[in-house]
Amino acid sequence: MNRRNFFAIFLSLLYSLLLTSCKPLTQDDTPKNKVLPYNYSNSYDMNMPDNDEGLYIIPLYTAQLVHDGSLQTIEIDASNTEAGQYYTLRVIGAGGKIIWQADAGFAHAGWNSIFLARINGKEYLMQYNPYMIQGSGSYSFRVFSLGKEGNEIVLDKDEVDFGTNPPGVYGHFRKQDIEPVKTFYNHVNQYLANSELLLNTDDHIAELIPEENRGRKHGTHEDPIAGLQDYFYMGADLTIDEQLDLFVYHYYDENDDLED
After folding, report:
1. Is 2 a domain residue?
2. Where are the alpha helices (DSSP H) in the chain?
3. What is the domain count for the chain?
4. Looking at the domain assignment, is residue 227 inside a domain?
5. Alpha carbon of 56 to those of 78, 102, 191: distances in Å?
6. Whether the Cβ atoms of residue 192 and residue 228 lie closer than 8 Å to each other
7. What confidence score (pLDDT) does residue 82 get?
């Protein structure tokens, strides 16, 4: 075999290899979103399984959050959980358009809890943030529907600030805190009683979930986490008046003082 024939055969083989390796992507080759089945939530936690397909989407509910008769889809994007960062709850409208979303982070500053509330036959989102740091609390919630473009239409909201520290320390409890705390807890519990959990990363809210479901971060239509009740002291089996009475009694017992 002369040199010219050898070179021609080499080029032919190289061309064949290039054609094989550069074939166009088929539908099966194209990366797709990973859609997790509804029953996956039974064992769902922050530790996601190996993911080599990109995005994780967890479908939760369909609901009428835009009060015009149309249906929206509520889903969780868990693609950022592997990095230990956050979930994103999304509301999907007509044509697959994201009309509203909110993050729920793993770090304390980013904790969030979002519920699906049903009030007088209509469906709403409820965002509840009972933020507490070093004995100083700032609790807030809002209940809202959505406009067609995703703007929040607030039905109700409330907030309260209070402390639980002893006298002389920043964020201490005062007599003037008693009635606002009672009012707030009664208010938020009225909505929680008619709500189902969509997504939660808040440790305080996790304590309200029945023990058998406490490891879950969300519910689904088929397997909801519903009817939670928040409490200020000792437990939700006591009324808020009983909780405050016990708290004040123990506070006096430990500190011999309760400022106005």
Report:
1. no
2. 3-21, 178-192, 203-208, 240-255
3. 1
4. yes
5. 5, 16, 30
6. yes
7. 76
